Amino acid sequence: MGYIESEIREVAKLLNIPIIALDSDESSEFHKLLAKEYALTRFAIPYWEQLNTSISSHDMDGWKKIGSILADGKLLLLFDELEEKSVFEFDNSDDLVRVLSESTGFVFYVSPLDLSELICFNDHDMLMVFKAADQPFANVPPT
Question: Does some domain include residue 69?
């Protein structure tokens, strides 16, 4: 278990927030689907450096806007596979933001279960929103 996985589990437990950690096969399958949907090379440079046109904003608190960008519902929290292979399922964006607010900084990605959108918050305080090829941009707050 990597330090990010340990931290997410500990913070969620401390805040009494239910999360589901996908098992290693499910996590690997999810990364495969993500790579296919967004044309990513796995185990290479960070995903966000491979993704094309997005809406982005330089905002050190940009991660707090996740709930205003993604539709309400279950979300997946993931990381570059080079850093952490775990994928976590959250019931909603409020729970996710609460866990992130009590965590140390790290590059992360958030997606609804259908992979229609992908949000990244990186180590340069950039909030980036990416869409699957057939999805229009909506619900993106102004920068």
Answer: yes
